[in-house]
Amino acid sequence: MSRRMVVAWLGILLLLGVLLVLLPRAESVESTVALRRFLAEAGMDVSEGGPPPEPDGTFVLLDDLRTPDEARSLMDWAASGGRLIVADPRSTIVSLAGAEVGDPVGLVGAQTLEPGCLAEEALGVEGIVVRASDRSLRGGDRFVSCFGGHVLVRAHDRGTIVLLGGSTALTNEHLRAADNAVLALRLVGSGRRVVFGPPIPAAGVAPETGVWAALPERARAAIVAICFAAVAFAALRARRLGRPPAEDPIAPIPASELVRATSRLYRRSRSLAWAGTVMREATRGRVGRRFGVPSNSDALPTVAANATGMPPERVEEGLAGPAPRTDEELIRLGSLLSEIESRARADAGANAGADLRARTGAKIGGGRP
Question: Is the pLDDT of residue 367 over 50?
């Protein structure tokens, strides 16, 4: 994949991340945000997640997972004059208050329920719409049953307990249906403070700590989008698996062509002296390494003549003679240098063989008794 394509995909991913952060989120139909806003616009002091308000306030539990001891503590608060609304039929408060959970209010879809009672909570409510999955409640003579048992109301010492078979009538989906909004106002009563409590007591919830917990939700989404884009970029730039794709070479020229082109330039420019100097330096370096003499030493021709048995004047001519001026002199120089190097190679091989035979004989001789 080309670099331009990688940059394009990276830009697309970053754009999607930015749109994810900036676009407004649609509120879920299961949420009760509309209820909170409706009560606040009605002039009530609405808060969320805190402890129960003063005795004349209202405490709403849409979900409740309290233990029996915690439920009794909340009922004691209601007995002191508070108004407790529990919209979760699974709550322990339902049984502690003396009620039982019955059957669903319908089979499928939404059901319209009529009040059928004279309780203050049903005043001005001609009907409400709930989901069929909500439950009916049975409370006996201690409760006032409204809307086919979906709402139970009873006095609890100086306070009031209101039980609902579900919270769907208060959700964003159904709050506008029928008289659900009127029911919500009647349920919270005349108290000015309304607190939506957590499923468990606030003291039992361990607060989140750390930088991540302190970031806003949109900042978290932006960081996740950037990390995803970085991972995608790394994956695109990583080593590809499988057989590499066939690619045409950028410059399909043999490596030897450089040597040939250089020689042609030398020939065209008639650089005979330069070619002779290059040949001499290369030969002096190889011969010097064989005999342990520096290539730029003046003693190298003498050492090479003694080692190879060639006439000293020929060795001197080859390794330190004048520069060639014609093609014939350059050819003779190349032949002479080749002969000197061949003799030096043969002499070095013979010396190495003699040394090996001498060491072998010494070992054998030293091993005799």
Answer: no
Helices 300-308, 272-291: inter-axial angle, 10-degree rounding: 70
Instruction: Look at the alpha carbons of 91, 97, 101, 105 in this order and tell me if their dihedral is positive or negative.
Output: negative
State how far the Cα of 289 lies from the Cα of 295, in Å rounded to an integer: 8
In which region does residue 189 sit, left (phi positive, over 0), alpha (psi from -120 to 50) or beta (all else)? left
Tokens of 168: 């769907």
Using DSSP's 3-state secondary structure scheme, residue 110 falls into strand
Q: What gap in Å lies between CA 61 and CA 197, rounded to an integer?
A: 5
Specify which residues 156 forms β-bridges with: 159
Contact 29, 171 (CB under 8 A): yes
> What is the Cα–Cα distance from 173 to 166, expressed in whole angstroms?
14
162's tokens: 């209101």
Kindly state whether residues 75 and 187 are assigned to the same domain.
Answer: yes
Across the beta sheet with 45-48, what order do the strands follow? 45-48, 193-196, 58-61, 83-86, 159-164, 151-156, 144-146
Is residue 225 within a helix (H) or strand (E), and if so which, with residue range? helix 217-237
Same domain, residue pair 181 and 62 = yes
Residue 29 has pLDDT above 60, yes or no: no
Q: What is the pLDDT of residues 117-139, one digit of tens each?
A: 888 888 888 999 999 899 999 98
pLDDT digits (tens, 9 = 90+) for 62-85: 998 989 998 999 899 999 888 999
**Same domain, residue pair 157 and 20:** no
Domain that holds residue 228: 3-25+215-237
What is the model's pLDDT at position 220?
A: 79
List, for residues 240-253, the tens digit of each pLDDT value: 666 767 777 666 67
